[in-house]
Amino acid sequence: MSKDILILGAGESGVGAAKLALTLGHTPFVSDAGEGKAVFLAELDAEGIRYEVGGHNPGVWPKVKTVVKSPGIPEDDTIVEDLRDSGVEVISEIEYASRHYSGKVIAITGANGKTTTTALIYKILSDAGVNAICVGNIGTSWAREMSERKDSADVVVVETSSFQLDGTTTFKPDVAILLNITPDHLDRYGYSLENYAKSKWRITANQTSDDYLVYNADDEVIADLLKTSGTKAQLMPVSAENTIEESSVGAGLNAANKEEFLIYTHNTKPFNMTIQELALQGKHNLFNSMAAGVTSRILELRNEGIRESLKNFEGIEHRLEYVADVNQIRFINDSKATNVNSVWYALECMDRPLVWIVGGIDKGNDYRDLLPLVKEKVKHMVCLGKDNKKLIKTFSKHVETVHVAETAEEAVRIGYDLGMPNDVVLLSPACASFDLFGSYEERGNKFKQAVRGL
Questions:
Q1: d(CA 314, CA 127)
Q2: Rounded to whole angstroms, how far apart are CA atoms 258 and 276?
Q3: Could you say which of 56, 87, 118 is where a domain stops?
Q4: Is the entire prediction scored with pTM above 0.85?
Q5: Is 126 exposed, middle or buried (0-12, 13-18, 19+ CB in 10 A)?
């Protein structure tokens, strides 16, 4: 059998897959339609991995049975369709990594809250002394982590996007966590929420009765999927809105004291914690903390350890990240909020008047859901993007002023000039970053750099 493997994309997941292939004794070849980033190409050179950039040239590819596709390449890309038509298996990097891992897998997906919940679970496990790794969309690819570790972790906590799940066939998490399904990346799914939801549901497709699905019991789309698609996994519903009965399993508010939540799992002592004790405040973070708590109880971690970890969690960079107070004006970096629902959560948890920095590449967003919160909380809007027509049309009548910036530094300066003592300048873009920045991380870092330069 040929040990050659083709990898499409020379980014984090592609290079990670190539390095894992090398570790497994396979011969990877990497093809990237773009020019590739120097840092990744240098890694390939150092490992002696062959690659091409500047376009896909099937004429130089090895004959393979399996191709690992980076998540940035759409499923309906001509290259992908041609490969599948020729009988070649095309899979994602998480599918590839999972085939070579034998420990427990905890997988998290959803339109919003993935990174926070992933980090929460990883913190709880680490604080408890569990040999765990945290991989996927949160930063390091699973394949890279496997290729660079001398030992195999007992538990992998993997943040998975719909793009990564699209390329799975045997991926089977021991615990799957589905946080929510709201419109996001609809441009990749024919502008169909149904298609997007089906991709998310793949997280539970291969689960058995030995596995668990932790899911948002308040989400109507998930409720419909449970009815129409079903799952063989044991169900663990989580509600941040409703109470939970003692005879149930999952998590919900305490009927006797709704400032407290309870977690019940099979044949274990119930977990209780007041909402005020949580390090992360806000309704959305309550749900994330509850989901992390349920997962930890499924793994039979100690209640007191879970409580301490949830109390002491320090948050995620670029997600409602406090940057600085400058002359009593607070600056918050929420660059990771690339869809409407993430911005809704950000606006919802703000308790001061806002200067809102918004904009970028629209992903088929319907901004109307934000109107009530914008009317209530936003004084000024600063558009940071190349095409702001849709944003301006939606919100201009509902804020005092609208401004346009072409750089993060300009946006921060405008926000600072508009702000008054006790105001918040909030970068929460609702859009992808690629019109002006290389990534949401670059956008957030430039925002922070500009704030510190005031």
A1: 13
A2: 11
A3: 87
A4: no
A5: middle
- CATH number, domain of 343, equals 3.90.190.20
Task: Please say whether the beta carbons of 341 and 184 come within 8 A.
Answer: yes
- CA 329/CA 353 separation, integer angstroms: 10
* Residue-number span of the structural domain to which 408 is assigned: 321-452
Same domain? For 107 and 202 the reply is yes
What is the reported pLDDT for 1? 46
Rounded Cα distance, 151 and 148, in Å: 9
Q: Are strands 354-358 and 378-384 parallel, antiparallel or unpaired?
A: parallel
What would the pLDDT profile of 294-351 be if each residue is shown by its tens digit?
999 999 999 999 999 999 998 778 888 889 999 999 999 999 888 887 888 789 878 8
Does residue 32 share a domain with residue 9?
A: yes
Taking a C-beta distance cutoff of 8 angstroms, is the pair 220, 184 a contact? Answer: no
Same domain, 117 and 160: yes
Contacts of 350 (CB under 8 A, 6+ apart): 377, 424, 426
Task: Answer whether 426's CB lies under 8 Å from 357's CB.
Answer: yes
**Best-predicted range by mean pLDDT (93-102, 281-290, 315-324):** 93-102
Q: Which of 116, 141, 125, 114 is nearest to 321 (CA)?
A: 116
